Amino acid sequence: MLFVLFTCSILLYQFADEMAKLIAAIRKMASYAGAETLYIETVLKAVGVAFISEFVANIAKDAGQHALAAKMEIAGKMIIMALILPVLTILIETILNMLPGR
Is the pTM of this model over 0.85? Predict the structure, then answer.
């Protein structure tokens, strides 16, 4: 398991440079589109949490710890829900303001 963790860490480190380029390109496109930074940053954080939680869960599954892997996936989903809460609040407020009689 230590070898798997070491190998995955090296791959993730090498992958980080490519991810930085991708994130820079997404931010550039968002600035061209005039999108708010709150939305873009939140989406990027949620995607990052999803990747990391899946990565850690797969390591746990490879080690035979299926129950721990399931808990890690649930924890990742809960963190994502906490991250998107401000965006969800803005979305609900926008929808309520569009309703007639308000």
Answer: no
Question: Does the pLDDT of residue 1 top 80, yes or no?
Answer: no
Predicted local distance difference test score (pLDDT) of residue 67: 92
Structure confidence at residue 77 (pLDDT)? 93
CA distance 64 to 38: 39
- Cβ count within 10 A of residue 30: 17
User: 38-48 burial string, b = 16+ CB within 10 Å, else e?
Assistant: eebebbbebee
Q: Which string of DSSP letters, residue by residue, matches the chain?
A: -HHHHHHHHHHHHHHHHHHHHHHHHHHHHHHHHT--HHHHHHHHHHHHHHHHHHHHHHHHHHTT-HHHHHHHHHHHHHHHHHHHHHHHHHHHHHHHHHSTT-
Query: CA 30, 34, 36 angle in degrees (round to 5)?
Result: 75
